[in-house]
Write a structure and sequence with these properties.
Distance between the termini: 33 Å
Radius of gyration: 22 Å
Oligomer: single chain
Shape: globular
Strand content: 15-25%
Largest sheet: 7 strands, mixed
Strand order of the largest sheet: 8-7-16-17-18-15-19
Structural class: alpha+beta
Length: about 425
């Protein structure tokens, strides 16, 4: 990776080194196509990055890795990520106390926490078990074809009570979708729920940024060029910010939606969701287990002691706590978040050291129904656009969109210059 003298003109140029661009470049390279990827920043990953600071690993926003995503399993040798699992369940802080919900198929010894009255009412436990079984066992294609509605409507149709939704499901899913009204597409919800039931939520030992780094390392040498922002698309290829022109038969724009609309006018820009994550160092772990804590008051979305998930996230003898909130943060900022963390953990947080705050704008697209789970990437002859904003707001969605772009590019290259094309949509 890095800059250097440009080689001969590639057949395809990918603008953007996030997960979608990397997946596209990988599939094109595997098909024998000469491809060149230009990334504006100093490293690949887009929003999936990790900073190292004073011995801590700080992901740019709280992120988890799901081993059940099909594109993840296809593209990445998972052993090289040294994945560390979360507890298969959550602790929900509710008006009636803290409830523990655990997958009894993975933690049989903790099944007692699911007895009626200890977690949810018997009716809600049965409804939740039925929902999970249906989504886990149903073919993904069947879930994709289902009638779309809001996630809130889907949960109600599953027989879950308002109390179960408001106290447990809403706070948990608000952290997944980055919105608390549960207006996200139910088809997407069912696919996400299926993946959680079938896979394991983890953290890579070297941070979430190791995912795009691993994918980039699998590309042919010289494919990726960092610190190489694309100023514009030209009739023959691209124009870089340094004034260099690079010709190519096809250009794939694999950036965020706003940048894509600038490079390819007419590309839709869906509304986005924003999240802010606060990182604190604690001398003592406030929760000695790798479990996500969710807040039914929605003062915060969730909090977790990341160093309990993977000890690599913090120096020895120190704990790293991640706490996320919707949008740009609550009134009172970091101090308010720390006070709420004290309530959630039942711990003294006065001595916690504030390490960093990350606000990620447009972290996910707002996926209101009816939301198309995949969009055509070809927008003009030799011009393509991909990214999670063209599919679903997830690692799976970004990778799948990049893979689809590669398939469409390959089909057009094989068909020749008279290949059909469509306008942006």
């Amino acid at each position: 990776m890095g800059n250097g003298r440009h080689r001969r003109a590639p057949r395809v140029i990918v603008a953007g080194g996030g997960l979608a661009g990397l997946a596209c470049a990988f599939d094109l390279g595997r098909a024998g196509v000469d491809v060149e990827l230009h990334e504006a920043s100093d490293a690949v990953g887009g929003r999936v990055r990790t900073d190292r600071r004073d011995g801590f690993l700080l992901d740019r926003g709280f992120q988890v890795f799901n081993t059940a995503y099909p594109q993840v399993r296809r593209l990445l040798p998972l052993r090289e990520l040294r994945l560390r699992p979360f507890t298969p369940g959550v602790l929900a802080h509710t008006p009636s106390g803290t409830l523990r919900l655990t997958d009894p198929t993975r933690r049989p010894r903790e099944a007692g926490s699911l007895l009626p009255g200890r977690a949810l009412a018997a009716r809600d436990l049965a409804a939740l078990a039925g929902l999970t079984a249906r989504d886990a066992l149903a073919p993904a294609a069947l879930l994709r074809r289902g009638q779309d509605r809001t996630t809130e409507a889907a949960l109600a149709r599953s027989g879950l009570s308002r109390e179960a939704v408001d106290h447990v499901l809403r706070p948990f899913l608000a952290g997944v979708f980055l919105e608390s009204d549960l207006e996200t597409s139910a088809r997407f919800f069912h696919l996400v729920w299926r993946s959680m039931a079938r896979g394991t939520l983890c953290l890579p030992a070297d941070g979430i940024g190791s995912v795009p780094r691993l994918l980039a390392a699998r590309l042919p040498e010289g494919t990726v060029r960092t610190d190489s922002p694309v100023r514009s698309l030209t009739g023959a290829g691209i124009l870089l910010h340094d004034g260099t022109e690079r010709p190519a038969q096809a250009v794939v724009v694999a950036t965020d939606a706003v940048t894509a609309s600038r490079l390819l006018p007419g590309t839709p820009v869906p509304p986005g969701r924003t999240v802010t994550t606060y990182y604190h160092a604690a001398g003592t772990s406030p929760l000695p287990e790798p479990t996500l804590v969710v807040d039914s008051s929605l003062t915060v979305l969730n909090t977790c002691v990341l160093s309990e998930v993977s000890g690599t996230y913090a120096p020895r003898g120190t704990s790293l706590v991640s706490t996320s909130v919707l949008d740009g943060g609550p009134p009172g900022g970091e101090a308010a978040v720390r006070r709420r963390a004290a309530d959630l953990y039942g711990a003294d947080t006065a001595d916690w050291q504030h390490l960093a705050t990350y606000t990620v704008e447009n972290a996910l697209p707002a996926m209101r129904p009816p939301w198309p789970l995949s969009r055509r990437t070809r927008v003009a002859p030799g011009r393509y656009v991909c990214g999670d904003h063209r599919a679903t707001g997830s690692v799976q969605g970004a990778l799948a969109s990049g893979s689809r772009a590669a398939r469409e590019v390959l089909a057009d290259l094989r068909a020749g210059p008279r290949a059909p094309h469509s306008s942006p949509r």
